[in-house]
Design goal:
The chain is an alpha+beta fold. 20% of the residues lie in helices and 36% in strands. It has one domain. The chain has a three-stranded antiparallel beta sheet with strand order 1-2-3.
Length: 64
């Protein structure tokens, strides 16, 4: 990932399950689903959403 992206991590059980979002200019540019299943389409939708997003807006947006 590009180092200039802002990172927001929403963990369920530290480093066990989580959704990591990478933001640039308040838009989600990438999503990493860590041991999270069935959320690929939702993650794609979040990437396609123009936002703008603050990191706090993303908490719980994709269930882990």
């Amino acid at each position: 990932m590009h180092l200039r992206l802002q990172v927001f991590a929403d963990w369920q059980g530290r480093y066990r399950e989580g959704v990591i979002c990478y933001l640039k200019n308040r838009r989600v540019r990438a999503v990493l689903l860590w041991n999270v299943w069935g959320q690929v389409d939702a993650a794609r939708g979040l990437i396609g959403d123009r936002g703008p997003f603050e990191p706090a807006d993303l908490k719980g947006r994709l269930p882990a």
